[in-house]
Amino acid sequence: MRITIIGGSQGTGAQLASLAQAAGHEVTVLSRSGTAPEGVRNVTGNATDPDAAARAVAGADAVVVTVGGAKGVHHQRDAVTRTVIGAMRAEGVRRLVVQSSLGAGDSASQLPGPLGLITRIVLAKALADHDAQEFAVSSSGLDWTILRPTGLTGKEPSGTWQILETTDNGKLKGSIPRADLAACMLGLLTDDSTVGKALGVSS
């Protein structure tokens, strides 16, 4: 599979790029820094630039968006995602997986105890960006999946995780290692049962 990762120079995106490349996939990373894991095709550019986004997604079978916010930039995640969606439509690429955050939309109810309320208060600006991002994704007409992780850690991966929709019973835990999130994302790319769904994920 040819996979393009938007924001794959560090964090979860970089771990996903390494995992996908090791699994035999052809991986392209678009980042402002111009850095990418060894063996991965690198496209340097701002993902809000339509030309850079088009270069990155051209020829891809699937696209993953893992970008964070940018200091001083309003709704960076939303802006990047909308640009990438436009590039995907133009290039005829349909499969899209987007990293959002638990707390976006109606997903705060999946967090245990008072964490849902605390998350909505402490991360209000970031979650507003994710809400706008998720709306762009869900109205894109693409084959999309939104993944909402709990707090990300640098702990060693366990190789297991829990996935819930907001209509499922149960609560998610408060964190997940980035390496487990990356492995979860890689699996979702070929799981057609998750198309059109927003999924919470934790350890």
Outline the fold blueprint:
Layout: E1 2-6, H1 11-22, E2 26-31, E3 41-44, H2 50-57, E4 62-65, H3 76-91, E5 95-99, H4 115-122, H5 124-138, E6 143-149, E7 151-153, E8 162-164, E9 175-177, H6 178-188, E10 197-202
Parallel strand pairs: 1-2, 1-4, 2-3, 4-5, 5-6, 6-10, 7-9
Antiparallel strand pairs: 8-10
Helix pairs in contact: 1-6, 2-3, 3-5
Written account of the structure:
- The protein has 203 residues and is an alpha/beta fold.
- It has one domain: Rossmann fold (3-Layer(aba) Sandwich), CATH 3.40.50.720.
- The chain is 34% helix and 23% strand.
- The chain has helices at residues 11-22, 50-57, 76-91, 115-122, 124-138, 178-188; strands at residues 2-6, 26-31, 41-44, 62-65, 95-99, 143-149, 151-153, 162-164, 175-177, 197-202.
- Strands 3-2-1-4-5-6-10-8 form an 8-stranded mixed sheet, with helices on both faces. It has a two-stranded parallel sheet with strand order 7-9.
- β4 (62-65), α3 (76-91) and β5 form a beta-alpha-beta unit.
- α2 crosses α3 (76-91).
- The longest helix is centred in the middle third of the chain and has 16 residues, at 76-91.
- The two termini are 27 Å apart.
- The mean pLDDT is 91.
